[in-house]
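Input set for joint prediction.
Command: fold jointly, output tokens.
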Amino acid sequence: MATQRRILIVDDEADLAWMLKLNLEKTKAYDVQIETDPAQAVETARKFVPDLILLDFVLPKTSGGELAVQIKMALAPKNPPIIFLTAALPQSNPDSKMRTMVGYRFLAKPVGLEHLLACIAAELQHSHQG
Amino acid sequence: MVFHPMGRMNQFLAKRSRPMALGLGLVLAAVVGIGDLVTGTEIHFAIFYLVPVTLATWLGGMFAGVILSLVCAATVSLVDLAGGVQYSHPLIPIWNGLMMAGFFLIVALLLDALRNDRARLEQAVRQRTAALTEEIGERKRAEEQLRAANEALTAHKDELLQAMTALEKSHLQLQAAQFQLIQAEKMEAIGRLAAGVAHEVKNPLAIIRAGVDYLEGEPIAKENTGHGVIARMREATGRADSVISEMLDLSTPRALELANENLNDLIKQAVRLVKHELTKKSITVTTHLQPDLPRLWLDSAKIKQVFINLFMNAVQAMPNGGSVVLRTGVSEFRKIGPAEHIQSQYPQRFAAEQIVVVVEIDDSGVGVPEDLLPHVFDPFVTTKGTGMGSGLGLTVTKQIVDLHGGAIDLRNRPEGGARVTLLFKG
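tokens >
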């Protein structure tokens, strides 16, 4: 069995984070850690050193965008891909629309497991190649 | 007016005929008297005296007729006496004279009555003719007026119909516009509501969806009932999500709404909008707007957003106050300062001789750290502290400028502060 890739989920919705962790771990392909306190996210990332980060875009006191820059700076030179999860986008093809706008992959909540897994795989492969 | 020769002659005679008629009558009476005297008493001549009497009466009127009747009667009597007629009684010649006078007078009176009657008749006919002519003229004029009025009325009716049609049309347009306005307001309200509701509803939906995905792999999903329950839950979350997504779709920005705009005006409007904020932060704004800039195809709301974003950026770069200087102008692309750099950022967007409208915004702030300069337009890059901004302001600004086919450049000025250069194809 190949080594598990490490995924950090940052979302203040603890139930959602836990449920996503369950689903991702069920695939046996990922080692998942969750962080529900955005203030701790940078520290957690530094310790956990994830291969990919699932980041809620709308967070209390900060924004997913700012947090993304901070985490990336903390983890440099490692540059793990970040997938934003957002409840503020319509479902209709938000992925391609937002990606062209700011260069990040955005997934609109609620995201189906199949789609989520596909996006994670794509980002990991992309970052691996890069 | 009908031509009336007799009427004319009568009028002419009536004016100066009395002396003339009298003169002519007396001459004729004298001629007839001489003729009577010459022919002797045996031949009756009295009838010829009617010629001067009738002539004088017809031409001179009643007075001349009476004079001539008396003169002629006297002449007849005198001729008889001169002719030596013997009377059995001395009063007989007087009697005969009176008889003749009576006879002449009756003729004169009848003739005069006839003449007057005729004159009255002619007068009446003239008056009637004039009245009729007048009436015909009046009727013609009235008809003309009626016809003109009718025409005016018809034209007026057409105009009224046209005006009514136009009114109906504008009423419909107004109704449509009002409807659109109400719709737009509704949409905006729905959009605002949706953005708020979406976050609260989509998170629980995401949890349910993740739960459904989890159960999918569990033994319960293999059972008939369990499978049905999971399928229905999945379908229900999908339905709820699509409703919220549709509401959110309404609030997402649409495509550019381009119009032929005066860039200077949009800048002035943007300055007005941020003036208060700038004054509060002790920042002065100076604008040097070149008049007669070529008009550009711009989305006014988005371009104003660009300038507001840039001003707010400048504000945040000058926490202790300072100045913003804005210039507009027209130039060839190759003559502007950062042409080379822009050429590398936007390959082939501008030809060297391309005429461009240039906007320069200088601030007296701290400038941008050199290592951050290449990334200022990247998302989430910010020099501000946490919570000060999204880090998307310049990204959105560049996106808007790019959508307009323009270019944006940000660099530090040697004398301190930063300069933003905007280019639009003129």
